[in-house]
Amino acid sequence: DGGWHRSQDLRPYDSMLSELADPGLAPDLLRLRELIRSWRFYDHVRTDAGAPARAARIGTRTPVLSADGGDLAAALQTILEIGDDAALDEAVTDAFPGSRVRVCDSGGRFEIQLTQRGLKRPLGPAELSDGTLRYLLWTAALLTPRPPELLVLNEPETSLHPELLDPLAHLILAAARTSQVVVVTHARPLAQALERGASRHRTDVNSIELVKESGRTTVAGREGLLDEPLWYWPKR
Questions:
Q1: Tens-place pLDDT, residues 121-161
Q2: Which of 117, 132, 147, 196 shows the smallest number of beta carbons within 10 Å?
Q3: Which residue from 113, 96, 95, 93 is spatially nearest to 104, judged by alpha carbons?
């Protein structure tokens, strides 16, 4: 009848999003739940010798890179097949001139291979440096064929060579055209690269700098205890 329906079984600790998101009775709640589920948070993606991204894994259609990056090869192959393959090639060339990344299928198990200028054979995932592997992981996450409403990257500059920060900034800004991207970084060069590239990518960058003095963390330029950052949501 278009009115509200009260559930007698909803307990105080239950969530309306999990219990009442019904396509017939509460389509708005269902849409909100699915929107929140699409949010992605990449906090610590491993690149050590035993990292999941270095191992071959059974390949399946993977439009979203997993949190541990273990399905990197499948995610890259998905971009090549149904995503922006030209952007993928450009991102790799931008970071590693003359290089190309491809996915090798061995009995249904996928593994990445990076062909670099001057090398007679491609490099497998076990041979890639931590920085190279991490850049490819960010490439797969940011070029996803299924962009989320919100994408959060925590310290993406970790183990990256300084020369990779500009290419990474280009990837982040390109992703910001379809997603709200939040980047937490300790690398001032990355923050500056994002600010420099904003006009080129026709997107807005809102920077909030935190400083620590005498054991207290404050927002730069705002000294009062009750001061808050001026939150500004960039235009889409």
A1: 999 999 999 999 999 999 999 999 999 999 999 999 999 99
A2: 117
A3: 113
